[in-house]
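Annex B. Sample input.
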Amino acid sequence: MTIKYNLMTAVLFSGVFLGFNTAAADDGEKSDLRANFRRVALEMSSTEVKNADLYVDNPNSQLSADSKTMIKGVFDFVLEYEQPNWQWNNSLFMEYGRTELKPVDEEHTTNEDADKILLTSDYNCKLWKLDFDDADAGPFASVAYQTEFTRNNDAPRMKVVRGKSGLKLFNGDVIKELYAAAVGEYDFTYSNAEVTKSAYEIGIRAEKPISDQVKFQLEGYFRDYLSYSEYVATDLEYELSVTGRMDVKVYQKFSLAPYVSYFQGKARSASREGSNFLIGLSFAYADLFDL
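Annex B, continued. Sample output.
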């Protein structure tokens, strides 16, 4: 376990140093600063959750929700700073969904369907220009902090610092990001059990225009944990997340998008995986500003 964790740490730091060296070489280049509102959305969906009883006390609220209809708010913003040989993105992603249930002849309850705050700083080196999709490619490194607005049931509020380093294809006509990375995590969700973890991750974000008013969007990642510094029953062994949207522009920067989302994970103490499947409709605003 120690050898695996040391290897992950070495890869993370090598990616960071490579990026800083490239940045120093191009310090005199003209910069391009953009404010990218990827999505500010109100989502309505129908949720089907399997094996939720096994994940009641898990910090991941996606696996413990009830099957129901819900409403969720999403804010996805990126501040992009780009030069010819590198790009530095700083992003804030927030989502929160909460449903009030009122069963007949029963006490009415509220349930949290989605709860996530993710702050990320992402550094990408443009070492190669590819003919394929007219995309840039090279090493990247990122650091992120993930938490929640509120705690989930009896679980404490999630608090995780996550570092990644690997190779990425980005800025393509269709493929906006395609990466493979080593991951190191410091999870201090539980005050009495602070855990360091190593993992590998692959991910994608793509957009395919169908017409002037319609485009298909795909986002997803798979993270597989390799080692843990200690045993915590609610820690996940892996995570799989996939979301597909058909974005239809209705007025200027506003759009309607039917979407499908699937999340799956398996806790170390659970006998079976848990999953969360959503089909819904999103009303969203998106725009890109030069600063």
